[in-house]
Amino acid sequence: MNKNTPLNTGKHPDLKIEVAIIGAGTSGLYTAYRLVTDKKYKAREVQIFDMNHKLGGRLESVVMPGMNFWGELGGMRYLTSQEIVTTLIEGYPLTEEDPAKRIPVLKDRMTPVAFPMGDPSKLLMYLRKDRCKQDAWNVAQDEGKKLATRYYLNDDDDGFSSDQLFNKIIYEVLMADPWVAETYKDKIIKGDGIYDYSFKLTSEDWDVIKPRLVYNFPNSPYDQRKVNDLGFWNLIKDQISQEGYEFVANAGGYYSNTINWNSAEAFPYMVGDFSAGTIYKTIEEGYDSIAYAVANSYMDHEGACIWSENKLLTFTKEHSLTNTHKYQLTFLNLKTNTTWNVYANTLILAMPRKSLELLDQNNFFFNTNENSVLNTNIRSVIMEPAFKILMGFEYPWWKELQIDSGHSITDLPMRQCYYFGTDPETNNSMLLGSYGDMETETFWKALTDDQLLFEVRAAKSASLKELHQLDDVQATKLMVDELMTQLRELHGPDLTIPEPYVTYFKDWTDEPFGAGYHAWKAGYSVEKVMQYMRKPVADERIHIIGEAYSDQQGWVEGAFCEAEKMLQEHFGMDRPIWLSPTYYMGW
Q: Which BP terms does GO give this entry (predicted)?
């Protein structure tokens, strides 16, 4: 797997091309790869520009000194049901009869491996200063009991785990709509036990349900409102009380899942990603390998170029240099701090919301007076903060609790920690302190701004010289001290947790990203916005793609699907032969 993709940090003043792709994240790279491998354009006619010095956008895999495996600072896994990302990584079946034999799509080989979620009978849940194992609810239910917690739940919600309670809420709301209850009665299932709810709804089913679903509860202030117009917090509180909301928000491990985002979008997200039976995988060579593999398949073509450390400032149609190219793009070359122009006929903005807002908002495309609909639709998503910190330890202290992988969950501001792995030769081990959801952002932000950084120290196979090369990505000492305090509280007083020897900190709220991932606001027609963003202005050849305006927000697959739909709708491209004709990519 080659991650030494050649990047051009220079400039080529007055470069003339057909398609300028802004953003070397997964959607931009995928678009370039598809356009040139399907021979829609020659590679020299399709160029990628990015202000970063690396590829992959919000994917970033790193190896820490003293360990020979990859840790993840950004996206870190995929679902096997996500067909584009799975096929690019694993190849596609030679025949339906023999799905194990697969034909590679990309030149670079990646090694798919299970993303272990750990053993819930060992992993911890620490809520309101009460510590238990994550399977404690199921253990109690198997014994015919209700697990006592420190939450004052409604009588008919008592004893449910957070996952079960989410399923119950979604079941109740779906079945309260007579049309949904009748149309999908075979796919919305109440099992024999009081805790058993399951859903066999496909993505297509959900896309029919989401715009139509009505909240049908006569004693509620939201009665007869479209679920699409309700915030998820509003709906959860209405269903199971504010105390119930506190429980599912805390025990779920992600405040971002329960913020006031679009309820209709939240439903399939919660039952699809956070339900039992979901199969996660990752890439042994680091999850950002998917970005480099796609980039390398594009770069294999003569004339291909990825211009890194070049920041788009603005673009205009009012230029006199050429009659053959519609748009003049002005870039700032970050190495020389000088500007240069590129001329293109099509512009693809493969960028999240914040990056779009950092472009010149007074140009013909973004100007509110000229195009207020675009302005409104850009703001149709919530920017979700994400801070991540990888911590290197000299031994896997969590194994004293028989924990080998997965994540523990708490209502402390750290929210959760992933036990990432251990180097078999050195015993050095990695933990991911994953935090910075909406509610805890300000807690950690106050600590990230401190001046004093964590001081690395030598460990087995990790020299000080090697470690000091990571000085500029260390978390602050204050943040590490606070995080260690919370780790010790989460794991309990009987476990001795040593200090780390190195950290690696990433704040995805920094520009140009502005967020780790995105969520749809309530009240927007997601179907219309998604289709609109792929070509916002009818007579302009300008397209917006990426995870932010997809129906799989927070996933690489969302970025791929938006790029693929744009290519088919607006470039007249055929579905690739490696993608199953029945795979549904959403609106």
A: amino acid catabolic process
